[in-house]
Structure prediction request, 291 residues.
Amino acid sequence: MNVETQALGHLHPAARAEAALDDEARIRHLHRDRWIDYPRAAQALQQLERLLVLPERQRMPCMVLHGDSNIGKTLITAKFLREHPPVFDELRGVEQRQVVAMQMPATPDQHRFYTALLFELGAPHSAAASLSVLERLARDLLRRIAPRMLIVDEVHHLLAGGYREQRAALNLLKYLANDLRLSLVVVGTADAPLALESDAQMRSRFTPLEIPRWRESDDFRRLLRAFESVLPLRRPSDLSQKPIAQFLLAASAGLLGEVARILTEAAELAIHDRSECISLAHLETVGRATT
Prediction:
């Protein structure tokens, strides 16, 4: 199908090229991760950037980024990591990273924490090594890599451990932040701030930033228009119209990940049936299939 570029004015320029592809290729493009800018995400990225450029001091400021599961926190940190990729220092022969990111193990165990950290750093090590060996190796590597920030996702896993395990894990995080003079960003569900409550120093050091669920608002309608501009459909869908916006809010429970999934599946239906735009009927079909 030949597609005239001027007929795709509802799309972002990059999406216009995708809209000209065949159906199979467009569907592949539909299912990849994509960044949609919105005010709270921009605020989170701005705050992360601010922490990254602050000068070293004895007590580095930190942040807890929290919100319900599937609200978009991981997309925010992934974008931040893309904006600050590793750089290889040719003179020293060392890869330097401004930002190191990892996931908190499912149980807050120090040995597993250092093993996960070393894995993210790409450092070979023995799984049978003692905690002291893993800790020394991780600290030495971090000093050479010289990060300005450590991001720990899934920090709510701290709550899976008992009081002693929680205290030990919190002390470990505090120790790394103090020892390496870096900003610590912990990311998790709405329970993430609770994971820090048992330590007064951690609680006072961390600035909370919540990514809330979406509600009926001009910002939500702008979000839907932004989605429409990047989905490679050849006709405008007018996603910000009231019936569609209300349906998406109800079907997604205000979760960004669900909004994206529903729109992606509805767009695929619109490609298959040749309508080339998302209708309320498409959304209702997707909704019925997931209930």
Remarks:
- The chain has 13 helices and seven strands.
